[in-house]
Structures are given as structure tokens and as C-alpha cells.
Design goal:
By secondary structure, the chain is α/β, with parallel strands linked by helices. It has twelve helices and 24 strands.
């Protein structure tokens, strides 16, 4: 079935765990019930998700590091009947008299653009995504998925674990995310497909030995910078990228990334609407069997038919009627000497409506005048930031993502 760190769990191990769950009152009849799962025991959490799914129940996976009060709040917000927190012996019972009509996977949106929302997808829809995903995934038989991201999120759970099990391939799920340990596991499985975030890929590359090389790398969640992509590509056989959202799952996959904004080709369980070219971008809208999903992302299709993203609709900066996409500004700043991280965001301006501002992290002190000169030489006038702030760390949300809205609000 799967490995968790160094321990292998067989189908028989899963069946024994299912028998244990069936003897617990709140789990014995979980059909149409909604159950929150928050436990540091990764095997118990995963097998419980599989058990509830098989029995037609609904699962709310909650990150294992969530404090008890936080997990209870999420369980209430997502209308759980029961919360399994840390141990099976002391389930937290919730007040909910209404059963689900069908089993669903419930996830919380990232909260990047506002208050996190409770999002539901049926197991039937997820199975369709899995089938299209596996059809589009360009890896050879025997490639070992190594999942170095939370399985409480759809990237790790669906794209990583469930698609692997459907392919009858045993994934390696890493609960120990110490970079040195992860690199050791990658060396033990040289024909790997690594699932990780752009930030963690950067860390692994920085700490990897000179002669180390990745096999296949999958990235998702945030756009990887052009600099990081080039550096990871130099140490990898191939870099892949997937794009999606909590409401729809993965909807596009790029089998060989050449530029960070290339999300790849539609998996076909959703019809993807976007701009026809870079000069005419539009909001990416997903058309499914039952509804249309507005992603709030701005994108277009390139000449090859790949979906390309320019950024979030809310993050776009309107300078005197001209659109500025923050990623384009960040890419230029990241190429400047000593710059390690950068985030561009907007602030109100009495004359232009909005102006571009930037925070950056550098290995040494950087003169604002030098960075401004660098930007003036490489950006259009309306793209040049008016404010440059050097910081030790760029603030992030609890899920590790950067919120330009949050940074802008913090800076007044």
C-alpha cells in the first residue's frame, strides 16, 4: 500500500486498522457522517480517511500541527459530527443533526485572499480527477512518488497518495520533513517523483550535496520563481507543475516546465476558460458538470495550448489604468545582486490610483537607490516600485503561502 517514512504498511495492515475503526462507536456507522481527522499519527490519519471514504462518509482532514481549540473551530465551521483529535479513544462529539446526502472530502481554502472557506467535493468527482490525472502523468512504471507535503491538503492527499494507490504504486509519505532526512530518502529511491512546495524545493536544493540530482520534481501551490526553476532544473531530470484549486482539484498539468507561469494542459474533467493570448488575458474560469468556478486567477493560453498564469485578480496593480502583475516585478528584482526573496504589492496613490511597492530579503544591506536603478533599467515606468523595504523575513500565512494583501495591509 504505502510507506510512511521508513515503515511499510501493507493491505493487511490497513484491513486490521479498518477492523479497529469498526469497533469504535462513532466510526462503526460513518455513512453520511462528517468526521474531522487531526492526529499526529500519519498512518492512523490516512487509514481513517480511506476507511471513511470506503464507507460513504465525509472527511475533514485537519493539519496535524493544529492546536486542539483550532481543530475544534474547524470541525464546527465544517459541520462535523465527530472530531478525532490526536487519539481514537477520546473523540470530540459535535452538535449536527443533519447527515450528508453523499460522502465528500471537505477542505478549507487557503485564506490567501480573505477568510478561509469550507469547500466540498464528492468522492465521485475526486475519482474522476484521479483517473484523468493518471492518464496525463508522464512517468514510467516503477517511478516512486515521494510526498514531502501535508496529506491534509489535496495536493498531498489526492495528487500524491490517492493517484499512487490507483496506479498500484506504493508512495513514500514523509512525516519527517527534516531536509537532510528527505534528501536521504530521495537518494534511496533514485527513480522518484517528488511532491513538494516551491519553498521546500528551494531548501532541498540549497542543502543538497554537489553531486546530488533529483529525478522528477512536481511543484504546486505557488508560482515558482524563474531563478529557482532554473536552479532546480539544473539538478533534475525533469520538473513538472500542476495547477488547480480546492473547489476543483488539479485541473492542469505541465509535464516539462520551461517557464514558471506555464501551468500545462487541461485534464479535461473541467473545461478551462482563459484569455486567448498574453495581450488579452482573462480570469480563469472552470466549467464543470454542475457549476462554473471563478478562480480569481488571471491567465491565457499560449501557442502550445498550455494555460499560463499572470497572477491573482486581487493582486493585480492598476497604475493609472495600466495593469501591473506582481510576479513580473518580482522576477526582475530577484535577478538583482544579493536579493534572496521579494514580494511586490500595491498601495493606494492619490495620483495614479495604485502604486507598486516591494519588500525584499537580501544577503547584505542593499541601497534603495541601487535597486531602484536596477528596476528602472529593466521595467516599464508604471511597473517600477515607488517603495523598497528590506526585511529579515517576508510574512506568510499559517499554510506557508505569501499574501500580498496581508503585506499591503501591514505596511499601511
Amino acid at each position: 500500500m504505502f510507506f510512511i517514512d521508513d515503515q511499510y504498511y501493507s493491505k493487511q495492515d490497513i484491513e486490521k486498522q479498518f477492523e479497529l475503526f469498526a469497533r469504535i462507536n462513532v466510526l462503526s456507522d460513518c455513512s453520511k457522517k462528517r468526521i474531522g481527522v487531526c492526529t499526529k499519527n500519519t498512518f492512523e490519519a490516512l487509514s481513517l480517511c480511506l476507511y471513511i471514504k470506503e464507507r460513504g462518509g465525509s472527511v475533514v482532514p485537519i493539519h496535524a500541527a493544529t492546536p486542539r481549540d483550532g481543530a475544534i473551530r474547524i470541525a464546527h465551521k465544517s459541520s462535523c459530527h465527530v472530531l478525532i483529535y490526536d487519539t481514537l479513544q477520546t473523540p470530540v462529539l459535535m452538535i449536527n443533526d443533519q447527515d450528508d446526502e453523499q460522502g465528500v472530502l471537505v477542505q478549507m481554502s487557503s485564506g490567501t485572499t480573505g477568510e478561509p472557506k469550507c469547500l466540498e467535493r464528492s468522492w465521485e468527482d475526486i475519482q474522476e480527477e484521479i483517473e484523468y490525472y493518471n492518464t496525463s502523468l508522464p512517468v514510467e512504471k516503477g517511478t516512486v512518488p515521494i510526498i514531502a507535503c501535508p496529506t491534509s491538503h489535496s495536493y498531498g492527499l489526492i495528487s500524491g497518495v490517492l493517484t499512487s494507490l490507483e496506479r498500484d504504486t506504493a508512495p513514500i509519505i514523509l512525516s519527517n520533513l527534516n531536509p537532510k532526512y528527505v534528501l536521504k530518502k530521495l537518494e534511496e529511491a533514485p527513480n522518484h517523483l517528488l511532491y513538494a512546495s516551491p519553498a521546500f524545493l528551494h531548501t532541498l536544493r540549497m542543502l543538497s550535496p554537489k553531486n546530488f540530482s533529483f529525478h522528477y520534481v512536481m511543484t504546486s501551490g505557488m508560482l515558482i520563481s524563474a531563478r529557482d526553476l532554473d536552479e532546480i532544473k539544473s539538478k533534475s531530470k525533469r520538473v513538472l507543475q500542476q495547477y488547480g484549486c480546492s473547489e476543483a482539484g488539479c485541473i492542469a498539468l505541465n509535464p516539462d516546465v520551461q517557464h514558471p507561469n506555464e501551468m500545462g494542459f487541461s485534464l479535461r474533467h473541467f473545461k478551462v476558460e482563459a484569455g486567448l493570448d498574453k495581450d488579452h488575458p482573462k480570469e480563469v474560469i472552470l466549467h464543470g458538470k454542475r457549476k462554473a468556478i471563478h478562480t480569481n486567477d488571471i491567465g491565457y493560453f499560449n501557442d502550445s495550448g498550455s494555460l499560463c498564469l499572470l497572477g491573482r485578480k486581487d493582486d493585480m496593480i492598476n497604475v493609472a489604468g495600466l495593469n501591473v502583475y506582481p510576479q513580473e516585478v518580482e522576477e526582475v528584482i530577484l535577478k538583482a545582486p544579493n536579493i534572496q526573496e521579494a514580494i511586490a504589492y500595491k498601495k493606494p496613490d492619490a495620483y495614479a490610483g495604485e502604486r507598486v511597492c516591494v519588500q525584499f530579503v537580501a544577503s547584505s544591506f542593499v541601497e534603495e537607490s541601487q535597486l531602484r536603478k536596477w528596476c528602472v533599467e529593466q521595467l516599464a515606468p508604471h511597473q517600477v516600485p515607488v517603495e523598497y523595504i528590506q526585511v529579515e523575513k517576508i510574512p506568510t500565512l499559517p499554510n506557508g503561502k505569501v499574501s500580498r494583501k496581508l503585506v499591503g495591509e501591514m505596511m499601511g
